[in-house]
Write a structure and sequence with these properties.
The complex is a heterodimer. By secondary structure, chain A is α+β, with helices and mostly antiparallel strands. In chain A, 32% of the residues lie in helices and 7% in strands. In chain A, α2 (67-78) packs across α4 (103-113). Chain A starts with 9 loop residues before the first helix and ends in a 41-residue tail after the last helix. Chain B folds into three domains: 16-224, NADH-ubiquinone oxidoreductase 51kDa subunit (Rossmann fold, 3-Layer(aba) Sandwich); 234-317, Ubiquitin-like (UB roll) (Roll), CATH 3.10.20; 322-421, Up-down Bundle (de novo design (two linked rop proteins)). In chain B, α5 packs across α6 (96-109), α13 packs antiparallel against α14 (342-360) and α15 (365-378) runs antiparallel to α16. Chain B is elongated. The chains are: A alpha+beta, B alpha/beta. Chains A and B meet through α1, α3, α5, α6 and α9 of A and α1, α5, α7, β3 and α9 of B.
Amino acid sequence: MSSVPLGDPRSDHDSGEGAGGAPRRRPTTAPVPRFAHGSRVPGWDESVDLSKDPATVPDRATTPVPQKLHDAIKGAMAKYPDRRSAAIPALHAAQATYGFCSPQAIEQVAAVMQLTPAYLTSVATFYDMFELAPKPRHDVFVCTNISCSLRGADELYDALVNATADEPSVGVRSFECLGACDIAPMASIDGEYVGPLNTDDAQRIVEDLRAGRPVLEAKQLRFRACVDPGVAAGAREFSAPAARKADTAGLGPTGDVLDRPGPSAPVEIRPDEPKR
Amino acid sequence: MKLLFDRIDEPGLDTLPVYERRGGYDMMRRALTMAPEEVLKSISDSGLRGRGGAGFRMGQKAGFLPHGHMDKYLVCNADESEPGTFKDRELMQKTPHTLIEGIVIASYATEINRAFIYIRGEYALQADILEGAIAEAQAAGYLGESILGSGHSLSLVLHRGAGAYICGEETGLLDSLEGKRGNPRLKPPFPAIEGLYHGPTLINNVETLCTVPHIIRLGGEHYAQIGTPTSTGTKLVSISGDVQCPGNYEIELGIPSREIIYGLAGGPPEGREVKLWFPGGSSAPVLTKDDLDIPYDFDSLAKAGSMLGSGAIIVVDESHTVLEVAIKVAKFYAHESCGKCVPCREGTNWTVKMLDRIQSGEATPMDLDIMASVCEQIIGNCLCVLGDAMAMPIGSMIEKFRGELETEIEIARERADAAALEHVVPIGVADRHAGPLTVH
């Protein structure tokens, strides 16, 4: 790495061509507040606040927990061989109860699960879906990863931010790939995937959320058919459903059982077919 | 030929009555009458390679698990977070019972009694559908104690994640499933020996497990005749980006990549050409339009210096610069790095900073060399491959599009200089817009 200049590589660079123009970066000589050991963060073995005792496992008797939340956490713990596995489901339940993972919510989860609040906070801070600060009631996650941004997700994000500027109940957030690049650019609105969106849809989304109706029902992922032409060819054997609902259980729109062919036939491969 | 996608849009396929009418759970019945070794041999004979990204043979992986009755676990990796990948979502949403059937068969072959599905937290709809399907299967006796009187028991639990790409990495997933932060573990020991709760664990992708019932139906050797000798079977390909019909397609492995991108997905919009494409999610080294005739299978793509990965093709056409793609990719991995290993945590961050420098006009062509050397230093030096997953595409972009990136550096530098000169009032010139700028 001998080609890398030592010292401040940019001091020459700036004076060479900047010609005394506007300073491009913050001067590096400004003092940075540091801890005694020379770092800008407290040491790994130091408590951030020494005036407090370390938090212990909260006492179940003195920590009231809403019955519904208590049952949800207990139910989750029963599903796993190790109770700690229920940390994520329990935090999901707490977030659903309180809107976000407040210190009080974490305390209650800790009391039920018999873990320290620090442990649960360490888990909650790791995952993107847990909020440790109050958040608006409606979540709008806009995917701004590569496939969506190639199709204009950044403009969509800006449009949604503008459209929700005076709507405190809607929080818009750019999110990493949500796994729906086929409907790019897309957004997850309170967990419901909608797409492909354009910037004009932003206003409609806000109106739908305000009115409390399903958001952009025509563009919801749950009603989208597979694009593979082979699937549609196979599907022609069936009478087309009146409404493409996921939970029709093979029933027609009026509740009658649709008459369809029986079990799928095995796929035939001719043995004499030349191998690629 | 459609195996996984065979009439998948049939309404109500996510419910037990429709699935059973189409012959659902028959393959599970058949497998339960066979000996576990026979089922495992069928899977091994099929040559089925893992569909999650690594492409490891499922039969071989299942064979690593110790025999006998002990606390063994099967984990289905449904934490589909690789940018560009959305095939498992379609499978879980439309035919969840195929996945359950595959899990039962795989658990029978490896004598496992506890299974988990780790689904990413964002897939709320798919998780609800799966939960309903699991309840249906339980009520019908396809899960639980002694399934259909065979003596094989299986409990299946759906576990929702909470938004972390790293939990798709198998050991990160195990830590997350144990209720910890999703940090990857040191390997070996591999999960097949010591995984979830320190027990032997078989981890497979959704698509891999969904294929298992079809292998039982066709027979392992018959299935192996589909595709190429080393990449057998059909594969779901998720195509996205600059194509006319993005979506999931089921293909036979080994067909030319051009046929997928142009034949199935319609290619880029009229009048534009493919500039680069990721053959296997954003972690795969990029290929150019000269590589479009490479057969789409594991070995051909590896030979071309890339990988099939999760089967997610992202197409970028000429209307986008390499730089904007590189920044998006690098920022994603910098955001998702768990921070456990230094090369990945620092390397991804510094790569983002250097790419930002190119955009703000502060970079020199030498920065490309530094970036390439950072990428080299990440690869192979971390516990998991998240860092590699950034280093490989960025390294390949620098290698294949160096000329364009250098031009980009020059353009950005001129733009930045012009912006800086806006503030300069040359000596002796009262109105700086009066004449051409001269710097004294």
